Amino acid sequence: MGSDFKDLLVEVYKKLLEHFGKQNWWPVDWEYHLRERTNPFDEVVIGAILTQNTSWRNVEKALERLKAKGKLSLVWIEKVTVEVLEELVKPAGFYKQKAQRLKEVAKFIRSTKGGVPRREDLLKVKGIGNETADVILLYGYHRLEFVIDKYTLRWLKRFLGVEWDYLTAKGFFEESLPPNVPVYKEFHALIDELAKNYCKAKKVECKRCPLARDCRFRREGVG
Ligand code: SF4
Asked: What number is the average pLDDT over the span 150-154?
């Protein structure tokens, strides 16, 4: 990928930030954690598992149930029975699988004894793929790992006309952007915001999009 595309990516970041403002991802209920003396990091990890194959709205419902009847805590999740956990995370869908995955990841995080896990070790935990591992590393451990999701791949396909897999797209962002954790965090959230508001799966709203001028899809007159 040429340097023109790389320069363009930095421009995209600036335009999205100007248009949507700071997103401050990952969303965490700081008041809850202060009150309950739990660790906000745990909410990032729990949310990263719950968000697999579902909307954030459903994740929020499951998080609310955990807060009301259980705890947003990996220590608690590891101790509670899987049946209780399944019931609480039901709104996030695939609840049996997700309850099991939450327990697996809670056990793994405990085994790290407060250290930062290597990406390849996180990927060995059952149910943790590229996206979940990168969410945990970027938003939980503040490491330089760019997060790709289906929204990012869809946007890349339209904007640059490229059909990349996860790791190719991740490599492109990481080679193009300055090594800056807050930029990685914001950029991922801004692309999701773009995909939810304008660059949608079906009803694409190019006319209102802040990236329309440089977009291949738009230039070719499809949008
Ligand atoms: S101009 Fe249209 S296709 Fe291009 S990024 Fe914006 S919404 Fe997506």
From this structure: 97
